[in-house]
Each structure stands twice: as C-alpha cells, then as structure tokens.
Amino acid sequence: MDAPSLEERVQQSLDSVRPFLQQDGGDVEFVRLLPNGILELKWQGTCARCPMSLLTLRAGVERTLMRDLPEVKRVEAVQE
User: Fold this and answer.
1) 36, CA 20 to 30 Å: which among 27, 70, 76, 78?
2) Which residues contact 30 (CB under 8 A, 6 or more apart)?
3) Is pLDDT above 70 for 80?
4) Is 1 a residue whose pLDDT tops 80?
5) Contact present, 41 and 61 (Cβ < 8 Å)
6) pTM for this one?
C-alpha cells in the first residue's frame, strides 16, 4: 500500500479540526503548500467573515497542521 500523498495528509489533518469549524457554520479548504512550507487555506462559510478567524487559524488549525505535518512551517488564509 502506498503512503498517503501530502494533500491526503493535509486533508486528514484538516478533517480533525473541521467538526469544530462546522459547528459554527464554517469550514476550511486546502489551497496549496508552497515550497517554503507555507500552507495556504481558504475560509468558507461563517469563518470567512468571522473576526475571530485569525485566532482560530493560529491556535487551532495551524497548531494541528504543524503537529501533523512537519513540512508545514506556517499557515496562512488566502482569498482566492
């Protein structure tokens, strides 16, 4: 069996935080991982306009992704 791809691993990690985001009507979408280790995400639903989204990004989503994926050095929200 092949090891999961980086994108599959990102999705698995995001799946662990998604229930907390969806509980408040939000979600997050993986955009890309840049060569410098910055992972870009796009907020969806209520998260896209929530004033607490930066705190959620740093304290919840980024912490989880960096723990699960050593390739990730930082997580940024983009509006694409």
Assistant:
1) 27
2) 7, 10, 11, 14, 39, 41
3) no
4) no
5) yes
6) 0.89
Q: How far, in Å, are 6, 12, 46 from residue 41 at the CA level?
A: 14, 14, 15
Task: Cite the DSSP H helix spans in the chain.
Answer: 6-22, 53-56, 63-68
Average pLDDT, the chain: 93
Q: Where are the domains of the chain?
A: 6-77
Task: Name the residue type at position 38.
Answer: I
Per the CB < 8 A criterion, the answer to whether 38 and 30 are in contact is no
Report residue 44: phi and psi, to 5°. Answer: -130, 160
Distances (CA, A) of 9 to 12, 48, 68: 5, 23, 8
Q: What is residue 37's DSSP assignment?
A: S
- Judged against a pLDDT cut of 90, whether residue 68 lies above it is answered with yes
